[in-house]
């Protein structure tokens, strides 16, 4: 790994031994491949295995890479119907490894990087997709007040605020003018659905490779990467998850567009929405074009941020330049929905 992302193993072991009950060094730190935002490491120590997530070093966009918020939400969700890894310690002292970080339990689960789930058979693919929607249902039904998250974000007007926020983030990371993004920046504020007062915990990056599964079946062990979580509307994560059905096949953000999903055993978009609606009595279908266009816009803004960090030299993934270049393609998918 690059020197900028290497961890000082000896001093980190000493710090964790002093601050985490039961932790014993020495340790070795191995950065996980993939991921474009907060660098994540497997920590192998004398006392067992752990996972460490940190802010990337260097100059960062305001409000991005909020590992302290991740740590808080993991603690709030422990014992709920939403499965997460157990958080162990948050370190806000940048001098320890060069940026804020937290340590959490290692979950020995299985991750699927490709939403086509090529390693599974037809029946298993469908079961995993339905289990993912069930996790979205659990999120939609979570009592944020009882979980201690009433102040985790601003209540109400979620989509209006998100359009404004991601427009701002996109402008801060803009490296060239993208016509499709300009179209969406103009169209989305005019189409924001009326706020119905619903407040839910939104994961913000709910996709197949942020889910950890039991090695032997469709049991979801943990939802990971809560960096973009906030209070919002339960429609948001469902639309984001369904984007994979429409994204093109590519090595950076693999989607399912053009594939025979029926033959693969992957449920149709309408079936996923119907399962969510039946359990929650909510009807995202009424606003589906806006919801998808918004999520394509948001993902394009995130990709643009990845590109900006790559050009600055502080992106987490070696393939960040390629991922950032996807911003145009993603924005064009959103603009097509707007038309």
Fold and architecture overview:
Helices cover 40% and strands 12% of the residues. The chain is α+β, with helices and mostly antiparallel strands. The chain has two domains: 3-105, Phosphorylase Kinase, domain 1 (2-Layer Sandwich); 122-338, Aminoglycoside phosphotransferase (APH), C-terminal lobe (Aminoglycoside 3'-phosphotransferase, Chain: A, domain 2). The strands form three sheets. A five-stranded antiparallel β-sheet has the order 1-2-3-5-4, sandwiched between helices. Strands 6-9 form a two-stranded antiparallel ribbon. A hairpin with a 2-residue loop joins strand 2 (40-45) and strand 3. Helix 4 runs parallel beside helix 9. The longest helix has 25 residues, at 288-312. The radius of gyration is 20 Å and the shape is globular. The chain starts with 8 loop residues before the first helix and ends with a helix. The mean pLDDT is 91.
